[in-house]
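Molybdate ABC transporter substrate-binding protein
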Amino acid sequence: MPARLIRRMVGMLVAAGLTLSAVGARADDMLVFAAASLKTALDQVAMDWGSQTGTAVRISYAGSSSLARQIEQGAPADIFISASVDWMDYLQHAEMIRADTRTNILGNRLVLIAHGRNAPGISLGPKTDLPGLLGDGRLAMALVDSVPAGIYGKEALSNLGLWDTVSTRVAQTDNVRAALALVSSGEAPFGIVYASDAVADDAVSVVSTFAEDSHAPIIYPAAIVRTSMHPDAKAFLDFLISPAAVEIFRAQGFAPLTGQGDG
């Protein structure tokens, strides 16, 4: 990847407030590790929770893979919200979460976005000329072998027979919001993100939505981390599926999964 793109990505990551390590927090604050795609909606949910309860919630956003590994290494999180059941499974198998608190809270859709608000739609199929559409640019995606949005995107492109045509033209980022930022800024003409990410940014257009059967179901499970001692962790977890939180998530392009069982 060109050095200019890398520098730009780092700058945008910092500007977006995303972090790959636990944020500083007081001992009585609740610390939530959450997939980067949740940022816009979860910031509002946490703000509402804090206003209602007086309990501060600090949130560390990053790719689910990075957060899971930090928890495995002893990072002091109270709650983990993943964009993939696989990374929650990873921690559950390592006995790093309280399995009885694990709940599927949200679903999402995978979309192809373009820079600008009025980009024309694209019909995705085996004959789509993605390299031609990219021109001299690159396709922005989260890390395709570890970050859920990237994994879903690679799977969808592979099932459409398009991955081999663009695999060398992908600008991979540490998380999906960094991929969104590349397209938003015009550094990349197209990107693959979640529908909720597109809702959060006025500088991009959804030009196509991937068929749900082109990739594994996009599910966000949440659970309390085994080492958490915070007395309000369960209450906040319950708040994530409350009517107030569901309204916020839905407005931001998520599909709440309340009442659909554990992950």
